[in-house]
Amino acid sequence: MGRDRWHVIEEEGALTLARRVPVRFDLAVETVLPGVTGRRRLAHLVRQDLWRALQSLRGYAPVVQVTRRADVMQVRAGGAVAGRFDRAKCEALIAVVLEDADNRARWMRRA
Hints:
Layout: E1 7-11, E2 14-18, E3 27-34, H1 39-54, E4 60-69, E5 72-81, H2 87-99, H3 101-110
Helix pairs in contact: 1-2, 1-3
């Protein structure tokens, strides 16, 4: 796997995008997005913004899981962290990324 490659795992109706396997969620936050059709594209867009917010977290490997539920997409974003970290602070940063109105509008336009 090259540096620009990501593992894409599709199982049980969910698409999981991860840097490392086995997939591990040491921290995670969930949200729901209406009107999105492209799971893979959505996962990559969320992952990019997630990485921008948490790239200074040592040992961080992002994971995004997208599941289609009727007419909405359920998104679980977080990942694995090698080492100590403040879970509450990191999950709050992820929540800010996931609930940002500009991010959500961009994801819905592009996915």
